[in-house]
Write a structure and sequence with these properties.
Blueprint lengths: L4 H17 L5 H5 L8 H13 L3 E2 L8 E2 L1 H48 L2 E5 L2 E2 L4 E8 L4 E8 L3 E8 L6 H15 L9 H11 L3 H16 L6 E4 L13 H13 L1 H12 L6 E5 L11 E9 L4 E10 L4 H25 L1
Antiparallel strand pairs: 1-2, 3-8, 3-11, 4-11, 5-6, 6-7, 9-10, 10-11
Length: about 350
């Protein structure tokens, strides 16, 4: 007899409940789960079938049921693999998005420079206010486990963790359920010492693994990767006499080539945008030291899931501000439209 969807759900609930509490699970406990919506009598019949099939056992008379080795094996092979597949699907999806996103941002910078006759920059989106979506621990060897961490915005990080002893499948399942039950949906600010202490206590002899996973989660959520910035129209600087002086032009071009100062500009823009999302820096107001003779106009675009980036135009103080602001607003709207179309296609 194969397991139908109802038996699978009940078996999954028994295993998860047992791994969380360590106590045999009865039909009344299972009936309290609203997603099952089954009576105690129906659950008892299904549990009897599961016991007859060897997926659960009754440790002693009048007790509830606990998973058998066969039940654990089914859980590992048919349920945890779903999470692994979700991780792989996300990786493929993100890789495809990255290729399309790169092309979109490069084209956006080029169009903006051509339309305004100034220099332009577009930063790749970064994820802000990250929350943990889920994580999965998998055994790589007797001495290492792999933590796959997925944060808000489908940002994936992998972290190898060294272990002193080989962890069996039941222990891995317990740790996965313990961490996901208590951590998913939390931001880095919500992961406090009290929560960590409670998780370490529940993990018992495996408390060090909890500490290592917490470090990995912190790195994943707070990770500051090199910010990708696409530029175009740098040569337009030479069209304006007040900027084409040898030393001034050299400093501006250097800022575009090295991009460190552009990165600081992006970070400031994302942190202090005004209500319209448009920032105008004139002369000495510019956060970029090498652009004190320029005007810099930036805007923040948002692609959902907490992903934000900056588009900007750099030109002389006598730039056509109205045209630049209109161009930035139009580009933001265009990027929003393209992003929504891509989401529909997916």
């Amino acid at each position: 007899m194969e397991l139908d969807d109802r038996k699978v759900k009940i078996l999954k609930t028994i295993i998860q409940n047992y791994l969380e509490t360590g106590e045999p699970v009865g039909s009344r406990t299972i009936s309290k789960y609203p997603d099952l919506n089954l009576s105690s009598a129906t659950i008892r019949n299904e549990m009897a079938d599961l016991e007859e099939m060897g997926y659960i056992i009754q440790p002693h008379t009048s007790a509830g049921r606990i998973p058998s080795d066969k039940g654990y094996r089914f859980y590992v092979d048919n349920m945890m693999v779903e999470r692994s597949k979700e991780v792989e699907d996300l990786k493929v999806e993100l890789e495809g998005k990255k290729d399309r996103m790169d092309q979109l941002l490069k084209q956006a910078a080029k169009v903006l420079a051509n339309h305004t006759n100034y220099a332009s920059m577009v930063s790749a989106p970064t994820v802000h206010r990250n929350k943990l979506k889920f994580l999965q621990l998998s055994r790589v060897s007797d001495q290492q486990i792999l933590a796959v961490i997925v944060a808000e915005g489908n940002m994936i990080r992998n972290k190898l963790i060294d272990v002193d002893t080989r962890l069996d499948e039941e222990t891995m399942l317990k740790l996965n359920i313990l961490l996901n039950t208590n951590m998913c949906g939390l931001s880095i600010e919500e992961i406090n010492l009290g929560l960590i202490a409670a998780l370490k206590e529940k993990a018992g002899i495996h408390s060090q693994i909890i500490s290592d996973v917490m470090d990995a989660i912190g790195e994943a959520i707070k990770a500051d990767e090199d910010l990708e910035i696409y530029t175009s129209g740098t040569n337009n600087i030479f069209k304006y006499p007040e900027l084409s002086d040898g030393s001034k032009a050299s400093e501006i071009i250097s800022a575009f080539e090295e991009k460190q100062e552009l990165t600081e500009l992006v970070q400031e823009t994302l942190q202090s945008e005004n209500n319209t999302g448009i920032q105008v820096y004139i002369g000495n107001e510019s956060p970029i030291a090498n652009m004190k003779d320029c005007s810099v106009v930036t805007a923040t675009y948002e692609l959902g899931d907490g992903m934000k980036g900056t588009i900007g135009v750099i030109g002389p103080k006598r730039m056509d501000y109205e045209k630049v602001v209109d161009s930035l607003k139009a580009l933001k709207a265009q990027m929003d439209r393209i992003y929504l179309e891509n989401r529909k296609e997916e």
